[in-house]
Amino acid sequence: MRMKQTMEWALIRRGILSNTLHKPPPQVPLHPNASLEFHPLQISTHLYDSSSGSSSSCYFKPDPDHKQHSLSNSTIGSCFTFASSLNCSSVYPFLTKKDRNYSTVGALTCNGNLGKGEIDCRKELDSEIKGSYHPNFLTKIIDIIVRNEDDMECKLNLIASGLLVKSQVALKWATEIFRVLNVKGVSGLRFFRWLRSMSPEIKRSSIFCSMIIDNCGWLDDYETMAALLIEFRTENVCLARRAFQFIPVFGSNDALLTESVQRVIGVLSEAGGSCYASGIHELVEMFCSFDKFEMAKFVIEISEGKASCYDVLVNEMCRRGRLREALGIIRGMVELGVRCDAKSYNYLLSSLCKIDKMDEAFRVLEEMKGNGVLPNLQTYELFIHSFCSHEKLRRVYQLFDQMVAEGLKPQTKTHAAFVKACFSSERYDEAYKYVVDSSEKYYNSSNTVYSLIASLHMKKGDFGTALKIIIEMMEKDLKPNYAVYKRILRWLLDHGRTDIASDLKSRYAVFKLECPLNVNRNDYG
Fold first, then answer.
1. Tens digit of each residue's pLDDT (9 = 90 or more) over 416-451
2. Which letter, b or e, does each residue of 78-98 get, where b requires 16 or more Cβ atoms within 10 Å of its Cβ?
3. Which DSSP symbol is given to 444?
4. DSSP for 231-285?
5. Residues 56, 23: contact at Cβ < 8 Å?
6. In angstroms, rounded to a whole number, what is the distance separating the alpha carbons of residues 149 and 238?
7. Cα distance between residue 193 and residue 203, in whole Å
8. Using CA atoms, how far apart are residues 438 and 100, in angstroms rounded to an integer?
């Protein structure tokens, strides 16, 4: 009796069962000679209390997304036996907040009173809602997976179906479960397919799908891995770095590592599609992150990697200050006939500009043009920002002329960098002349650049000049930045210039009240 009450109470707590103690039995009782139509989340049966002679009915909540299956009474009975073995402290703490609100919670307690077990469970539930989880719960799930019994999915439904619906919770627990399965050398394929069906949100998750690929790698089961990759390809699923944690990057000789990588690339090549492209890219990134650049090159060479893979290699080398090697990679791309673009060179040029090796950067730029690769907007802006930071404004003008000749227009942040560089060198008149000229050439940036120079004048205490600039831009039908306008208006009112403040208000009232969306507040302090 006590065991049955505990079982029914625990399942109601999970939100899987609904309480119908005071309703007539709705369906067929669980009897050795009875047959039942089984639904993964819907079973109708009776719980009989021999001491009181009363019976109660409980059933699984229906799920329209699942088809009914006919199971034997022994399978159903084993599920109920397993459910009855779960005590309240191992089930209730893992309910979601929504599960906690069921009206049936607390209905099945001894003598109708709140038991000590319930109080303990509710305390554990509160901690679970805050983001923690109980390791005993994961241990039970792992134990079910390891035993790999015929009714494994049924048992998982009983204790975890409603808990792993949300993708964040499912990914967090799946990560821990697969980590243990990999160590134990146990396949997680059935758990993977069960969880994928229970949580549609993670069905195409690259991280989750990568977990089962990694699990196959630990088990050396490349046949299953190939079948899964082909399945993922049809669903356009991409792989994450998580898929290749089984590769022995450390603690193995180069021959073993090379053999492992060749096998993986062979399986990826067989699958093709999104899995192949993303897999090669993630392999290159993984080896670069471990400073295994030679192995990253090997992956690119045997997979005939695209320019994007070479870009990853060049970028990682530049981040680590290995600029000569990065240049060698780019030259190798040209020799192999790999089509590289300005992006490949920009990684190297950016690193050279940051360490103020401008002469060498210009030599790379000339080599880039000699190889038929035209600089893009980002290429020019790398040099312009570097020259502005070192207040070499003459060179900036030359680059502006080259950009205009090639039909490129500077971005707003590039104009802002030049104006700030002029103010840093106290060349205020030159900054003003540049703002006036650029407002005629690049109208889209006029509001921001005009408002910026007014803000810079206010920062150095020259509110009078800032006021003139604001009035000038409004006469050109340019709306000032709202924060700049309010600051000038406040300054006028604080100094008793109410007549000028009224005039400024009337001028600004012509424009719409909302602030312009293309303004970067950081430019105005």
1. 888 998 898 888 899 899 888 888 877 777 888 899
2. bbbebbbebebebbbbbbbee
3. G
4. HHHHTTPPP-GGGGTTS--SSS-HHHHHHHHHHHHHHHHHH-HHHHHHHHHHHHH
5. no
6. 31
7. 9
8. 63
DSSP structure class, residue 514: S
- The tokens for 22 are 């005071």
* Residues in CB range of 271: below 8 A, 6 or more apart: 226, 229, 230, 232, 233
Q: β-strand 17-20 against 55-60: which pairing, if any?
A: antiparallel
Sign of the dihedral through C-alpha 14, 15, 16, 18: positive
Q: What are phi and psi of 328, to 5 degrees?
A: -65, -35
By C-alpha distance, which of 350, 330, 355, 327 is closest to 340? 330
Is residue 513 a contact partner of residue 480, using CB atoms and an 8 Å limit? Answer: no
Instruction: Report the C-alpha gap between 405 and 399 in whole angstroms.
Output: 10
| CA–CA dist 402, 516 (Å, integer) | 30
Both tokens of residue 367? Answer: 């080599």
Q: Does the model's pTM come out above 0.85?
A: no
State how far the Cα of 435 lies from the Cα of 410, in Å rounded to an integer. Answer: 13
